[in-house]
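Chain A, query sequence.
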Amino acid sequence: MVLHTAKNTSIKRRLAVLAAGAGLSLWSFMALPAAAQAASLYFSPSSGSYRVGDTFTVSVLVNSPDQAISAASGTVSFDLDQLELVSVVKSGTIMDLWTIEPSFAQKSGKGRFEGVIYSPGYKGSGGSVLDLRFRAKAVGEADLALSASSVMASDDRGTNILDHVGDASFGIAQALPPSEALKLKAPVPATALPAACSTASLTHPDQYSWVADNGPQFTWSLTPDIIGVSYYVDDQPDTEPDTQSEGLLDSYALNSQGDGIWYFHCRLQNSKGWGPIGHYQFRIDKSPPQAFAVEYLDPDQTGLGESWLAFRTTDELSGIDHYEVNIDGDWVADVPAGPESDWKIFEPSSLEPGDYEVEVAAFDLAGNSIPAFRKLTVTMPISLLEAALAIEWWKLVLLLLALLLTLLVTFRLLWTFYPCPTKEDIRRLTDDLRRKSEELVELARSEWKDIDTTRRQHHRMIWGEGDRCHRLRVAVKAADRAVRRAIRRFGKK
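Chain A, predicted structure.
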């Protein structure tokens, strides 16, 4: 009976453990968060057919219909043989902040972007990340690809929910002659003259900044009613292009344009006639600053106990922006340009004694530069205070000797002209001589201590300083002993 009861108890315990385990598993399953929803990053359009010379826009879009997202990033690659990136448009997208500004290298055909969306994030389909405007360059297939991409969920973990990345491919055909392109364009009635041509430039985005690029590129927009474009480039700000259309073009590029300030003039035509002219200034400076030399001024020339490097140069177009000082190949300082006629000074006071190779590079406002080189030998520096103290020590020794000699001569003269002084006169004279000599010795001793303290504070010693300091101490002590012996002898008399 006992065994039966124990067996029943064991069975009940096992059933209880199984029930608890099943309940825990069910609770854990119910407590698990919902699986992260998927997102996709892709191009739109992902395909199309264009002709050489055509410009078209490709958008980078994101889909996340079920979960809000807080960030998106990726690297865009395009075919350099078939495509040329004209511009990047960041406005009007879902991004609130760019942690990596969209930038593309024309030589590599790659660009990186990374943006953040403020809380509560973006949720939906076809969210615009950025727009890329391309120009077709050559016949063939032009491919676009996304890599190293991510789409972060707007949760407390920043989960990457990207599960699909889309590529794009475009066919590029031979360009049509301008006359054929005009025939293909559907006429759109115009109600007024076109607006002034609004020009932008990817290579020269700021009209008043100098750029070291002599291949400027210009773009403008064409409304559906435009049937002709005329443009001209020169160095005059208000030139009017002729009324002979160059074709339905929305971009233009120059090759090997010379240095200087130039203007791109553009006007548009519709069925009502030619519109007003738009003028765009661009500045080119590919020439480096004038060659120059680095001058060395030793402590004697500066008069301040320190050596200087002095340099200056000019730039005919954009002007000098700054100088960069490198020593033994390492950057050490940037020196502001200031007025070009002024000497720029660099003090190598922090260098240890030794031989150095100094390079000073002058940069103009366009980024062009020219270097100048000089060998530099740094020796133990002598400060202005130490130089002054070195001179004063010799003066002090001479002054001390002169005063002692004057006292002795004066005493000898008094003894000569007053051969029979009374004891009281001798006592007063002796006391007075003792007092003055003690004051003189104390003054010399105080001066020596000040000099020694100053030397210790500077933590360095002028050449010969230790020898002069020792001789000064010996002179002071010897003078003190000599005066005291003379006073004792005269006091006994």
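The first strand starts at residue 39 and ends at 44. The two ends are 140 Å apart (CA to CA).
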